[in-house]
Amino acid sequence: MTRFLLAAAAVAALSAAPLVAQAQDAAPAAGPIAVQGDLVDTLKLSGRFNTFVGGIDATNLTGLLKTNKNLTVFAPTDSAFAAMPADKLAQLKSDKAAMQRFVLHHVVNAPIDSSKIKGAKGPIPSGAGDTILLDGSDEGGKLKVDGATIVQADLHTGSGLLHVVDRVLVAGEGDAEAPAAPAS
């Protein structure tokens, strides 16, 4: 985890890339996301993660997500960003340091496939240094992360594992829902 955090913290000069990537020429096809190369290529080529990819590019995290093979990314779709309050999204886009923490909150420095989530509930460290809450305890079989539902799981890309989520993950929600530490 330390190596991952150091690599992310070493981003000294933030890119001037736009925070929202240009939309694809054609509308993305409905249906499951197809794996197309590494994490970043899969996100870009699907056409459904333009805002998230824009944040990755703007904060110079592209190289990190392309080369670290043991990462798990919980990627919110453009629809998930559209559901965010407009003022919060605008604030996030205007602050590159906050955007970097936001993107890293969606990253775990370990491969976490759905079999590790099913039947379990608990916090795990995110790439931002905080925690996210994984929850596979739903009797209906829904897998959740920070309250978001994983709508497509276990996309094994060339550089890590991708789970598609239906809303953005908000730092602190995993901390708030985590079980309290036993009293000493």
Major sheet summary line: 7 strands, mixed
Q: Assembly type of the shown chains?
A: single chain
- The percent range for helix content is 25-40%
Order of SSEs, N→C? Answer: HHHHEHHHEHEEEEEH
Strand content: 15-25%
What's the architecture, going by CATH?
Answer: Roll
Shape by Cα distribution: globular
Question: Which consecutive residue ranges, at least 5 long each, have pLDDT under 50?
Answer: 1-29, 175-184
CATH superfamily caption:
FAS1 domain
Alpha-beta classification = alpha+beta
Number of helices: 9
Domain module count: 1
Q: How many distinct beta strands?
A: 7
| CATH fold description | FAS1 domain
**Order of adjacent strands in the largest pleated sheet:** 2-1-7-6-5-4-3
Q: Would you state the CATH class? A: Mainly Beta
Radius of gyration: 16 Å
Terminal Cα separation, in Å?
Answer: 27 Å
Mean pLDDT: 80
